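Handout, section 4.2: multi-component inputs.
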Amino acid sequence: MTANRFWRLEAHPHGNDFSAAFALKNETIPSIEDGEVLIKVDYLSMDAGTRMWITPRTDGYQPPLPLQSKMVGLCLGRITLSRAEGFAPGDFVRCFGQWADYAVVTPATSGLTKLDEDIADLREHFGTLGMNAWTAYAGLVDVAKIQPGETVLVSAAAGATGSLACQIARNLGCRVIGIAGGPEKCRYLVEELGCDRAIDYKADDVEAELAKIEGGINAYFDNVGGPILDAVLPNMAHYGRIAICGLVATYDQEGPSIGPARFDQILMRRLTITGFFIPDFLDRCTSYLPKLRQWMEEGKLVVRFDETKGLEHTLDAYARMLSGRNIGKVIVDIR
Ligand SMILES: NC(=O)c1ccc[n+]([C@@H]2O[C@H](COP(=O)([O-])OP(=O)(O)OC[C@H]3O[C@@H](n4cnc5c(N)ncnc54)[C@H](OP(=O)(O)O)[C@@H]3O)[C@@H](O)[C@H]2O)c1
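Output:
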């Protein structure tokens, strides 16, 4: 009898301590029904947006995950059994599966995708060719409509989505300013990712630093919301665009979120603010891939992987990412 370990949501977490919220359980490897596939998971992706699904809030973009469910998240792995048309044992795939040694999914509801194995590092399907890269590209190009020569600001800039957004904006000829927590991240942004400037929101007066930007900010790729958005609004250029990608500063807040304190600046500066959710863009994402792959091959788009080994250490990796102890993309290697 071979076992499958999986993480089960036991209670809604408070803050970034997940020890009481999840339990690592054992079962026999699940069987599959018609229309399903079984995947031996190799890597799990830690994504900040999933923090919202494990709260009781019902007004998010995804319904809350019921307590006592297996935790869900993006996985990379290989199909071991298939009863779904178009998928066969041996296929290397990405999907929304479970935090488990073995995931059971149906293609239509999990985004199950067969992947190209002709790349040096398969983890790039969570990196330069993955969901965070599509999100960065869609937010900058399709939502904020950035133009060469513009000033683009990115928050949570040293994280997975933010670090890709900084590089994509730079590759498209923009002047890029990143906001991140701590001097090591700020050095990374300027010295390794080619940002023109970095602002350490934990040490600097963000609003005062932003006020020094000549001409103001043309486009803001917002990953965090909260007080940083308040500091940005009065420093936007007239007719500036804000792509609201995420609100990680508020995901663990209990009760309804409070709107921006400087709401007036939307009128005063004639700003356009658009929230976007990458599943709405999936039909366009394949069209982003050739450009992303070209930049990856030219060394113009890189992802630093922050890797934890072992399914049993998943909660450490999750807390690392949500408390900002990561640089780059947080993944768990469970091979
Ligand atoms: N709209 C979409 O479809 C979509 C898709 C993917 C991701 N996202 C969003 O993109 C954002 C980044 O997600 P990710 O998965 O790539 O994670 P990530 O950026 O790799 O990690 C999260 C980062 O958030 C920052 N952070 C945490 N708490 C913060 C706070 N209170 N104030 C400011 N920064 C804080 C931390 O960096 P610091 O050390 O710099 O604080 C941390 O590194 C999230 O908001 C997520 O929901 C949205």
